[in-house]
Amino acid sequence: MAARPPHRSALAAVGAAAAAALICLSQSSVSAAAPVSALRPDPRPVAPPAAHHLAMRTNHVRLDEVDADRTAGPDDPDTTYKGPRLCSDSFGEKPARNVPDAFGGRNPLSVCGYTPEQLRFAYGVTQAHERGAGVTVAIVDAYASPTMLADANRYAMNHDERLLTPDHYREVTPPSYNHLTDGFCETPAAWAVEEALDVEAVHAMAPQADIVYVAAASCDDTDLMAALQTVIDQHLATIVSDSWGGVPHSVYGDADPATMAAYSALFRRGAQEDISFLFASGDCGAADPRVECAAGSARPQTEYPAQDPWVTAVGGTSLAIGPFDDYVGEVGWGDRRSVLAPADGGWTPAAGAGQWKYGGGGGTSEDVPQPDYQAGVVPAALSTSLMTGARARQPMRVVPDVALAADPMTGFMVGVTEKQQNGRVRYGESSIGGTSLATPLFAGLMADAQQGAGHPFGFLNPALYGKAMSGVFNDVTPASLGEAAPRPGSPPATVVDLGEDAAGRHQARLYQLGDDGLLATRPGYDDVTGLGSPSLSYLRSWR
């Protein structure tokens, strides 16, 4: 058994500057209607915006919602699957027919949604034998689904998985909830989908671990911090999965530095209590205001709390799992979409010029100095290059730290009871992606690692970066999809085939994978996948 590292070494690895300052947010002025050109210095005197609380948002993307103009899934009441009419059980299993070729040939149908068994084998859990026994994982989200345990167990039965008994699953909820009808937060129904994704993903990777769901009273900072504090005060778990975040610099103002410092103090205290905090890095790449998903972002930036020096930020990949559940390869998550034009039978925009839709969050923070654990691993050119194009005066924190499956085109099958498109409330299953998937998958993987090691790890980042050159991470590059790429030298792509609409028109979408906008994968550490994804030897490295 490996010797347990002392608290002091892990805390020191954050770096004196980051530890002393915690978070020092800039208060630069941002116009409420500022275009990208407004990132250049404005000679006019402008009062800085008032600091505000973040309305934290979930970081998941559903395959049945990527094309909301089309009713997805069959109407058969005996069928619970919600998604494209045609899809693949493994990556590249079925070619997309009756649609135009792209990138030099035919492309595969999107994945219906990977199952727990597929993900366990692809990331080495099956081979390592640990299943998280004796370890407790906490999940913190806003609100709480009244059907969560029933949904998780119906899902488990549908996929031949271990049931979650009341002995292994419990909930901690507040006496009442806030911001239910004022539009400040996403609805409780939206957070219920997030909760189902988080619980079922953790259980998929660590089916013998205990799970405690801790509900915040709303998405507001104060309520989420109260939930995090509950985890720490009662030491409810040693691993905490958090699939939410927000941009600290919005068109409405900058996040309150005191609030950010309070979050960071909680994470540091958790580290002293042997608790690991994992956060989703976001689903909008660099949060570039020019793209649809970044409405409200003042400029390209990293999300908070993912950029905090005391948390592990989890980014996203497009994962190819083969027909025998084997790991085939990954590329950094970032999707461009083109739409089938029935009038001329082509893709519009043309293949390669599609609309950028979403991708794994990451980049260089403008707020947080580089922690010591990133020095010597993160390239200096990356840590000193802000996403606005400016040069930083000192190396800064770069996000993410690691990455796992997140692309909804190669997503995870999730089951949840909710209102369907026909208005009925019933259980259904659909493929969901986002760094909201990658984060609980990694939480479950770390529960397995903790079982193997026989002790909790606390703050993970110093140990993760210490493994940077050990070969325990898959180095995700533009070419790392390997043999799963249909044509070498062409970008990987997949087709979402929605069948015919009510007017008899064929509806389909072409998604080009591996393009994360302002962020880019490259050999070694990068700002899309961090150190990379866990390899088949990852779990063994913690024993």
UniProtKB/TrEMBL annotation:
Residue ranges occupied by any Peptidase S53 domain in the UniProt entry: 113-543
Gene3D superfamilies found in the cross-reference section: Peptidase S8/S53 domain
Matching Pfam families: Peptidase_S8
InterPro entries: Peptidase_S8/S53_dom, Peptidase_S8/S53_dom_sf, Peptidase_S8_Ser-AS, Sedolisin_dom, Tripeptidyl-peptidase_I
Ranges for region Disordered: 67-93
Keywords, alphabetical: Hydrolase, Protease, Serine protease, Signal
Residues of the signal peptide: 1-32
Highest taxon listed in the record's lineage: Bacteria
Annotated protein name in UniProt: Peptidase S53 domain-containing protein
Species assigned in the record: Catenulispora subtropica
